[in-house]
Protein backbone atom coordinates (compact mmCIF):
# COMPACT_ATOMS: atom_id res chain seq x y z
CA UNK A 1 0.00 0.00 0.00
CA UNK A 2 2.94 2.37 -0.37
CA UNK A 3 2.92 5.52 -2.48
CA UNK A 4 6.33 6.27 -4.03
CA UNK A 5 7.75 9.37 -5.68
CA UNK A 6 10.76 9.31 -7.97
CA UNK A 7 11.17 13.05 -8.13
CA UNK A 8 13.89 13.23 -10.82
CA UNK A 9 12.97 10.27 -12.98
CA UNK A 10 14.71 11.03 -16.33
CA UNK A 11 14.02 7.90 -18.45
CA UNK A 12 12.03 6.27 -15.63
CA UNK A 13 14.30 3.25 -15.23
CA UNK A 14 14.09 3.19 -11.44
CA UNK A 15 10.31 3.68 -11.37
CA UNK A 16 9.87 0.79 -13.82
CA UNK A 17 12.06 -1.40 -11.60
CA UNK A 18 10.06 -0.37 -8.51
CA UNK A 19 6.85 -1.41 -10.29
CA UNK A 20 8.20 -4.73 -11.57
CA UNK A 21 10.34 -5.81 -8.61
CA UNK A 22 8.86 -4.41 -5.38
CA UNK A 23 5.65 -6.15 -4.26
CA UNK A 24 2.74 -4.40 -2.61
CA UNK A 25 3.08 -0.87 -3.99
CA UNK A 26 -0.08 1.19 -4.41
CA UNK A 27 1.18 3.91 -6.74
CA UNK A 28 4.39 5.37 -8.17
CA UNK A 29 4.70 8.93 -9.41
CA UNK A 30 7.63 9.43 -11.80
CA UNK A 31 8.32 13.10 -12.46
CA UNK A 32 10.76 15.14 -14.52
CA UNK A 33 10.78 18.82 -15.50
CA UNK A 34 12.18 18.14 -18.99
CA UNK A 35 9.45 17.71 -21.66
CA UNK A 36 11.73 15.40 -23.63
CA UNK A 37 12.46 13.26 -20.56
CA UNK A 38 8.76 13.14 -19.61
CA UNK A 39 7.84 11.91 -23.11
CA UNK A 40 10.54 9.24 -22.95
CA UNK A 41 9.38 8.32 -19.47
CA UNK A 42 5.78 7.83 -20.66
CA UNK A 43 6.97 5.58 -23.52
CA UNK A 44 9.08 3.46 -21.20
CA UNK A 45 6.21 3.02 -18.74
CA UNK A 46 3.93 1.83 -21.56
CA UNK A 47 6.60 -0.41 -23.09
CA UNK A 48 7.18 -2.20 -19.77
CA UNK A 49 3.47 -2.64 -19.05
CA UNK A 50 3.46 -0.84 -15.70
CA UNK A 51 0.97 1.91 -16.54
CA UNK A 52 -1.44 0.75 -13.83
CA UNK A 53 1.17 1.55 -11.16
CA UNK A 54 3.40 4.29 -12.58
CA UNK A 55 2.04 7.76 -13.33
CA UNK A 56 4.40 9.89 -15.48
CA UNK A 57 4.39 13.60 -14.65
CA UNK A 58 5.90 16.66 -16.29
CA UNK A 59 6.53 18.86 -13.25
CA UNK A 60 9.10 20.66 -11.14
CA UNK A 61 9.97 18.20 -8.36
CA UNK A 62 9.80 20.88 -5.67
CA UNK A 63 6.35 22.10 -6.73
CA UNK A 64 5.09 18.54 -6.90
CA UNK A 65 6.24 17.81 -3.34
CA UNK A 66 4.93 21.11 -1.95
CA UNK A 67 1.58 20.40 -3.62
CA UNK A 68 1.39 16.95 -2.01
CA UNK A 69 2.07 18.59 1.35
CA UNK A 70 -0.65 21.21 0.78
CA UNK A 71 -3.17 18.55 -0.29
CA UNK A 72 -2.26 16.34 2.68
CA UNK A 73 -1.33 13.44 0.40
CA UNK A 74 2.24 12.68 1.51
CA UNK A 75 4.43 10.14 -0.23
CA UNK A 76 5.49 7.11 1.77
CA UNK A 77 8.83 6.88 -0.06
CA UNK A 78 10.62 9.74 -1.82
CA UNK A 79 13.67 8.99 -3.96
CA UNK A 80 15.95 11.92 -4.87
CA UNK A 81 18.75 11.07 -7.28
CA UNK A 82 19.73 14.25 -9.14
CA UNK A 83 22.72 14.90 -11.36
CA UNK A 84 24.82 16.72 -8.77
CA UNK A 85 23.48 18.15 -5.53
CA UNK A 86 20.05 17.32 -4.04
CA UNK A 87 20.17 20.50 -1.93
CA UNK A 88 17.39 22.40 -3.80
CA UNK A 89 14.93 19.55 -3.16
CA UNK A 90 15.59 18.72 0.49
CA UNK A 91 13.26 21.29 2.05
CA UNK A 92 10.30 20.06 0.01
CA UNK A 93 11.18 16.40 0.55
CA UNK A 94 11.28 16.48 4.36
CA UNK A 95 7.80 18.02 4.31
CA UNK A 96 6.23 15.80 1.63
CA UNK A 97 7.31 12.44 3.07
CA UNK A 98 4.86 10.68 5.37
CA UNK A 99 5.30 10.10 9.09
CA UNK A 100 7.63 7.22 9.91
CA UNK A 101 5.98 4.05 11.25
CA UNK A 102 7.31 0.88 12.86
CA UNK A 103 9.45 -1.33 10.62
CA UNK A 104 9.77 -5.08 10.95
CA UNK A 105 8.40 -8.35 9.65
CA UNK A 106 4.60 -8.38 9.69
CA UNK A 107 2.64 -11.27 11.19
CA UNK A 108 0.16 -13.27 9.17
CA UNK A 109 -0.52 -13.06 5.46
CA UNK A 110 1.94 -13.85 2.71
CA UNK A 111 5.61 -13.29 3.55
CA UNK A 112 6.82 -9.88 2.44
CA UNK A 113 10.21 -8.25 2.30
CA UNK A 114 11.90 -7.97 5.71
CA UNK A 115 11.45 -4.20 5.72
CA UNK A 116 7.65 -4.38 5.21
CA UNK A 117 5.91 -2.18 7.80
CA UNK A 118 4.23 -3.96 10.71
CA UNK A 119 1.70 -1.20 10.56
CA UNK A 120 0.35 -0.31 7.10
CA UNK A 121 0.76 3.28 8.24
CA UNK A 122 3.37 4.92 6.12
CA UNK A 123 7.10 4.27 6.44
CA UNK A 124 8.35 7.84 5.95
CA UNK A 125 11.38 6.75 3.95
CA UNK A 126 13.63 9.28 2.24
CA UNK A 127 16.35 8.06 -0.17
CA UNK A 128 18.87 10.74 -1.20
CA UNK A 129 21.89 10.55 -3.53
CA UNK A 130 24.68 13.15 -3.80
CA UNK A 131 27.07 12.99 -6.76
CA UNK A 132 28.77 16.35 -6.10
CA UNK A 133 31.56 14.64 -4.20
CA UNK A 134 34.22 17.22 -5.06
CA UNK A 135 32.20 19.78 -3.09
CA UNK A 136 31.42 17.44 -0.21
CA UNK A 137 34.99 16.12 0.06
CA UNK A 138 36.64 19.50 0.71
CA UNK A 139 37.52 20.92 -2.70
CA UNK A 140 35.01 23.78 -2.36
CA UNK A 141 34.26 24.24 1.33
CA UNK A 142 32.39 27.51 0.76
CA UNK A 143 30.15 25.90 -1.88
CA UNK A 144 29.46 23.00 0.47
CA UNK A 145 28.33 25.46 3.13
CA UNK A 146 26.01 27.28 0.73
CA UNK A 147 24.34 23.99 -0.26
CA UNK A 148 24.35 21.93 2.92
CA UNK A 149 25.02 24.36 5.77
CA UNK A 150 28.33 22.68 6.62
CA UNK A 151 31.99 23.29 5.78
CA UNK A 152 33.70 20.25 4.23
CA UNK A 153 37.33 19.33 4.96
CA UNK A 154 39.94 17.76 2.73
CA UNK A 155 40.97 15.03 5.16
CA UNK A 156 41.53 11.29 4.79
CA UNK A 157 38.06 10.82 6.25
CA UNK A 158 36.35 12.97 3.59
CA UNK A 159 34.04 10.23 2.25
CA UNK A 160 32.53 9.49 5.64
CA UNK A 161 32.35 13.21 6.36
CA UNK A 162 30.31 13.62 3.16
CA UNK A 163 27.75 11.16 4.56
CA UNK A 164 27.63 13.06 7.83
CA UNK A 165 27.20 16.39 6.02
CA UNK A 166 24.13 15.25 4.06
CA UNK A 167 22.60 13.71 7.22
CA UNK A 168 23.20 16.98 9.08
CA UNK A 169 21.58 18.91 6.25
CA UNK A 170 18.52 16.64 6.19
CA UNK A 171 18.05 16.82 9.95
CA UNK A 172 18.52 20.60 9.95
CA UNK A 173 15.83 21.10 7.31
CA UNK A 174 13.47 18.64 9.00
CA UNK A 175 13.89 20.45 12.35
CA UNK A 176 12.30 23.56 10.83
CA UNK A 177 9.01 21.61 10.70
CA UNK A 178 9.36 19.87 14.09
CA UNK A 179 10.62 16.73 12.34
CA UNK A 180 13.84 14.76 12.67
CA UNK A 181 15.62 11.97 10.78
CA UNK A 182 16.83 8.51 11.81
CA UNK A 183 19.38 6.93 9.41
CA UNK A 184 18.74 3.36 8.27
CA UNK A 185 21.70 3.01 5.93
CA UNK A 186 24.35 5.47 4.70
CA UNK A 187 26.59 4.36 1.86
CA UNK A 188 29.67 5.87 0.22
CA UNK A 189 30.24 4.01 -3.03
CA UNK A 190 32.14 4.74 -6.24
CA UNK A 191 31.78 8.48 -6.89
CA UNK A 192 28.64 9.24 -4.86
CA UNK A 193 26.99 8.91 -1.45
CA UNK A 194 23.48 7.63 -0.83
CA UNK A 195 21.51 7.73 2.43
CA UNK A 196 18.25 6.09 3.49
CA UNK A 197 16.56 7.84 6.43
CA UNK A 198 13.25 7.64 8.25
CA UNK A 199 11.47 10.91 8.98
CA UNK A 200 9.49 11.39 12.19
CA UNK A 201 7.62 14.27 13.84
CA UNK A 202 8.08 15.19 17.50
CA UNK A 203 8.87 18.49 19.15
CA UNK A 204 10.51 16.86 22.18
CA UNK A 205 12.84 14.73 20.03
CA UNK A 206 13.78 17.72 17.86
CA UNK A 207 15.25 19.36 20.96
CA UNK A 208 17.93 16.66 20.98
CA UNK A 209 19.10 17.47 17.45
CA UNK A 210 21.75 20.00 18.54
CA UNK A 211 23.47 17.32 20.62
CA UNK A 212 23.62 15.07 17.53
CA UNK A 213 25.70 17.57 15.53
CA UNK A 214 29.38 18.37 15.93
CA UNK A 215 32.14 20.60 14.62
CA UNK A 216 35.29 18.84 13.38
CA UNK A 217 38.76 20.13 14.30
CA UNK A 218 41.34 18.71 11.89
CA UNK A 219 45.09 19.23 12.35
CA UNK A 220 46.75 20.32 9.10
CA UNK A 221 50.06 18.78 10.21
CA UNK A 222 49.49 15.26 11.53
CA UNK A 223 45.83 14.79 10.61
CA UNK A 224 44.55 14.26 14.16
CA UNK A 225 40.89 15.14 14.52
CA UNK A 226 38.58 16.03 17.39
CA UNK A 227 34.80 16.50 17.50
CA UNK A 228 33.03 19.27 19.39
CA UNK A 229 29.31 18.66 19.95
CA UNK A 230 27.05 21.68 19.45
CA UNK A 231 24.70 20.76 22.27
CA UNK A 232 24.48 18.56 25.34
CA UNK A 233 21.62 16.30 26.44
CA UNK A 234 21.73 15.13 30.07
CA UNK A 235 19.31 12.83 31.86
CA UNK A 236 17.00 14.84 34.12
CA UNK A 237 14.49 12.75 36.04
CA UNK A 238 12.27 10.95 33.53
CA UNK A 239 13.36 13.23 30.68
CA UNK A 240 16.34 15.13 29.38
CA UNK A 241 17.78 18.58 29.94
CA UNK A 242 19.30 20.30 26.92
CA UNK A 243 22.06 22.89 27.12
CA UNK A 244 25.03 24.27 25.21
CA UNK A 245 28.06 22.02 25.02
CA UNK A 246 31.37 22.88 26.66
CA UNK A 247 34.70 22.95 24.86
CA UNK A 248 36.87 23.16 22.91
CA UNK A 249 38.27 19.60 22.97
CA UNK A 250 41.88 20.70 22.34
CA UNK A 251 44.23 23.69 22.70
CA UNK A 252 44.95 26.45 20.17
CA UNK A 253 47.50 24.22 18.39
CA UNK A 254 47.86 20.47 17.99
CA UNK A 255 49.39 18.86 21.10
CA UNK A 256 51.29 16.35 18.95
CA UNK A 257 52.81 18.39 16.09
CA UNK A 258 52.05 22.03 17.13
CA UNK A 259 50.32 22.85 13.84
CA UNK A 260 47.03 24.70 13.59
CA UNK A 261 43.56 23.20 13.18
CA UNK A 262 41.01 23.59 10.42
CA UNK A 263 37.37 23.76 11.51
CA UNK A 264 34.70 21.92 9.54
CA UNK A 265 31.07 21.00 9.94
CA UNK A 266 28.66 20.89 11.61
CA UNK A 267 28.22 17.22 10.75
CA UNK A 268 25.96 14.42 11.98
CA UNK A 269 27.82 12.81 14.91
CA UNK A 270 25.49 9.89 15.66
CA UNK A 271 25.29 6.43 14.08
CA UNK A 272 25.20 6.25 10.26
CA UNK A 273 23.25 2.97 10.14
CA UNK A 274 20.56 1.00 11.92
CA UNK A 275 22.31 -2.34 12.67
CA UNK A 276 19.03 -4.28 12.81
CA UNK A 277 18.00 -2.97 9.40
CA UNK A 278 21.40 -3.86 7.87
CA UNK A 279 21.11 -7.40 9.24
CA UNK A 280 17.58 -7.69 7.80
CA UNK A 281 18.81 -6.70 4.34
CA UNK A 282 21.71 -9.17 4.56
CA UNK A 283 19.26 -11.89 5.61
CA UNK A 284 17.03 -11.04 2.65
CA UNK A 285 20.02 -11.40 0.30
CA UNK A 286 20.82 -14.83 1.73
CA UNK A 287 17.20 -15.96 1.26
CA UNK A 288 17.28 -15.05 -2.44
CA UNK A 289 20.66 -16.22 -3.80
CA UNK A 290 21.29 -15.19 -7.38
CA UNK A 291 18.45 -12.66 -7.52
CA UNK A 292 20.80 -9.71 -8.08
CA UNK A 293 23.80 -9.69 -10.38
CA UNK A 294 25.55 -7.38 -7.91
CA UNK A 295 24.94 -9.74 -4.98
CA UNK A 296 28.67 -10.27 -4.15
CA UNK A 297 29.18 -6.53 -3.93
CA UNK A 298 26.00 -5.98 -1.90
CA UNK A 299 26.90 -8.72 0.54
CA UNK A 300 30.50 -7.52 0.91
CA UNK A 301 29.68 -3.86 1.47
CA UNK A 302 26.78 -4.55 3.84
CA UNK A 303 28.95 -6.98 5.85
CA UNK A 304 31.62 -4.30 6.33
CA UNK A 305 28.91 -1.81 7.30
CA UNK A 306 27.56 -4.29 9.88
CA UNK A 307 31.06 -4.52 11.41
CA UNK A 308 31.63 -0.74 11.63
CA UNK A 309 31.82 0.92 15.04
CA UNK A 310 28.56 2.87 15.13
CA UNK A 311 29.58 5.25 17.93
CA UNK A 312 32.92 6.40 16.45
CA UNK A 313 32.64 9.23 13.91
CA UNK A 314 35.34 9.49 11.20
CA UNK A 315 38.50 7.41 10.83
CA UNK A 316 42.25 7.44 10.22
CA UNK A 317 44.04 5.56 7.43
CA UNK A 318 47.01 3.22 7.50
CA UNK A 319 48.94 5.18 4.89
CA UNK A 320 48.06 8.50 6.53
CA UNK A 321 49.43 7.47 9.91
CA UNK A 322 52.66 5.99 8.52
CA UNK A 323 53.36 8.86 6.10
CA UNK A 324 53.00 11.35 8.98
CA UNK A 325 55.85 9.70 10.91
CA UNK A 326 57.79 8.89 7.70
CA UNK A 327 57.88 5.14 8.33
CA UNK A 328 56.87 2.14 6.28
CA UNK A 329 53.22 1.11 6.61
CA UNK A 330 52.14 -1.56 9.11
CA UNK A 331 49.74 -4.17 7.85
CA UNK A 332 46.08 -3.85 8.68
CA UNK A 333 46.26 -6.82 11.05
CA UNK A 334 49.32 -5.42 12.86
CA UNK A 335 47.71 -2.05 13.59
CA UNK A 336 44.37 -3.62 14.54
CA UNK A 337 46.22 -6.04 16.85
CA UNK A 338 48.11 -3.19 18.56
CA UNK A 339 44.85 -1.34 19.25
CA UNK A 340 43.09 -4.47 20.50
CA UNK A 341 46.02 -5.39 22.79
CA UNK A 342 45.82 -1.84 24.20
CA UNK A 343 42.18 -2.43 25.16
CA UNK A 344 40.44 -0.39 22.46
CA UNK A 345 37.86 -1.30 19.83
CA UNK A 346 38.67 -1.06 16.12
CA UNK A 347 36.86 -1.68 12.84
CA UNK A 348 37.08 -1.03 9.13
CA UNK A 349 34.97 1.50 7.25
CA UNK A 350 33.15 0.72 4.01
CA UNK A 351 34.01 4.26 2.84
CA UNK A 352 37.77 3.62 2.56
CA UNK A 353 39.85 0.50 2.00
CA UNK A 354 42.67 1.57 4.39
CA UNK A 355 40.44 3.02 7.11
CA UNK A 356 41.07 2.49 10.82
CA UNK A 357 37.99 3.36 12.86
CA UNK A 358 38.72 3.19 16.59
CA UNK A 359 37.64 4.60 19.92
CA UNK A 360 41.31 5.05 20.89
CA UNK A 361 42.24 8.73 21.36
CA UNK A 362 44.87 10.26 19.02
CA UNK A 363 47.48 10.05 21.80
CA UNK A 364 47.24 6.24 21.76
CA UNK A 365 47.46 6.08 17.97
CA UNK A 366 50.64 8.18 17.94
CA UNK A 367 52.13 6.09 20.76
CA UNK A 368 51.55 2.99 18.64
CA UNK A 369 53.15 4.68 15.63
CA UNK A 370 56.14 5.74 17.80
CA UNK A 371 56.61 2.10 18.80
CA UNK A 372 56.32 1.05 15.17
CA UNK A 373 58.88 3.67 14.10
CA UNK A 374 61.36 2.31 16.70
CA UNK A 375 61.03 -1.17 15.21
CA UNK A 376 61.44 0.17 11.67
CA UNK A 377 64.22 2.73 11.58
CA UNK A 378 63.25 6.26 10.61
CA UNK A 379 66.14 8.55 9.63
CA UNK A 380 65.29 11.33 12.05
CA UNK A 381 68.34 13.43 11.19
CA UNK A 382 66.79 14.12 7.80
CA UNK A 383 63.52 15.36 9.30
CA UNK A 384 63.09 19.14 9.66
CA UNK A 385 62.67 20.09 13.32
CA UNK A 386 59.28 21.69 12.59
CA UNK A 387 57.88 18.69 10.72
CA UNK A 388 55.04 16.67 12.30
CA UNK A 389 57.19 13.52 12.16
CA UNK A 390 60.08 15.11 14.11
CA UNK A 391 57.79 16.54 16.79
CA UNK A 392 55.78 13.34 17.23
CA UNK A 393 58.83 11.05 17.33
CA UNK A 394 60.68 13.35 19.75
CA UNK A 395 58.29 12.22 22.50
CA UNK A 396 58.79 8.84 24.17
CA UNK A 397 55.71 6.58 24.03
CA UNK A 398 53.92 5.95 27.32
CA UNK A 399 52.18 2.91 25.82
CA UNK A 400 54.30 -0.07 24.81
CA UNK A 401 52.44 -1.42 21.79
CA UNK A 402 52.30 -5.09 20.90
CA UNK A 403 51.99 -5.94 17.21
CA UNK A 404 51.56 -9.68 17.82
CA UNK A 405 48.52 -11.03 16.02
CA UNK A 406 45.37 -10.66 18.12
CA UNK A 407 42.67 -13.30 17.77
CA UNK A 408 40.07 -10.67 16.79
CA UNK A 409 42.33 -8.69 14.47
CA UNK A 410 41.01 -10.24 11.26
CA UNK A 411 37.39 -9.12 10.68
CA UNK A 412 34.79 -11.69 9.65
CA UNK A 413 34.18 -10.12 6.22
CA UNK A 414 37.90 -10.40 5.44
CA UNK A 415 38.13 -14.00 6.66
CA UNK A 416 35.22 -14.96 4.41
CA UNK A 417 36.88 -13.35 1.38
CA UNK A 418 33.90 -11.14 0.58
CA UNK A 419 34.08 -8.54 -2.17
CA UNK A 420 34.25 -5.64 0.25
CA UNK A 421 35.88 -2.87 -1.81
CA UNK A 422 35.11 -3.51 -5.52
CA UNK A 423 37.52 -2.30 -8.16
CA UNK A 424 36.43 -0.03 -11.02
CA UNK A 425 34.91 -2.21 -13.76
CA UNK A 426 36.86 -0.56 -16.57
CA UNK A 427 39.50 2.08 -17.30
CA UNK A 428 38.44 5.73 -16.88
CA UNK A 429 35.23 4.60 -15.20
CA UNK A 430 33.29 7.23 -13.29
CA UNK A 431 31.32 10.42 -13.82
CA UNK A 432 31.94 12.15 -17.11
CA UNK A 433 31.51 15.84 -17.92
CA UNK A 434 27.97 17.17 -17.87
CA UNK A 435 26.22 16.80 -21.23
CA UNK A 436 26.16 20.01 -23.28
Automatic annotation (TrEMBL):
Query: Listed GO cellular component terms?
Result: nucleus
Pfam families from the xrefs?
TRM
Taxonomic superkingdom: Eukaryota
Q: Where is this region: Disordered?
A: 408-436
Record-linked PROSITE patterns: SAM_MT_TRM1 (PS51626)
Q: What is its EC number?
A: 2.1.1.216
Q: Cite the SUPFAM superfamilies for this sequence.
A: S-adenosyl-L-methionine-dependent methyltransferases
Q: Which reaction does it catalyse?
A: guanosine(26) in tRNA + 2 S-adenosyl-L-methionine = N(2)-dimethylguanosine(26) in tRNA + 2 S-adenosyl-L-homocysteine + 2 H(+)
- Keywords in alphabetical order, please: Methyltransferase, RNA-binding, S-adenosyl-L-methionine, Transferase, tRNA processing, tRNA-binding
Q: Which GO terms describe its biological process?
A: tRNA N2-guanine methylation
Molecular function terms in GO for this entry?
tRNA (guanine(26)-N2)-dimethyltransferase activity; tRNA binding
Enzyme class comes to transferase
Family statement drawn from the similarity comment of this UniProt entry = Belongs to the class I-like SAM-binding methyltransferase superfamily. Trm1 family.
Q: Report the protein name in the record.
A: tRNA (guanine(26)-N(2))-dimethyltransferase
UniProt source species: Tichodroma muraria
Its organism's taxonomic lineage begins at: Eukaryota, Metazoa, Chordata, Craniata, Vertebrata
Which gene is transcribed and translated to give this protein?
Trmt1
Amino acid sequence: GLRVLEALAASGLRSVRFAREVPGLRAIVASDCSPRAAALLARNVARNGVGELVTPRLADARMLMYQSKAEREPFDVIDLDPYGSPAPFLDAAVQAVSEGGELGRGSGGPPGPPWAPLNPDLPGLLCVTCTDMAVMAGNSAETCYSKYGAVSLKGKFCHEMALRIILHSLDLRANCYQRYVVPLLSVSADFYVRVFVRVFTGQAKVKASASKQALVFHCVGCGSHHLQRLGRATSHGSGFKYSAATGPPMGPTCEFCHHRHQVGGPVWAEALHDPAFVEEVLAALERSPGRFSTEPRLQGMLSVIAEELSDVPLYYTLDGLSSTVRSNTPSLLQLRSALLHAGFRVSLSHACRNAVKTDAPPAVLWDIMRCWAKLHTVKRERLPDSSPAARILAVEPTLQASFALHEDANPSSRKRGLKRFPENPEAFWGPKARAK
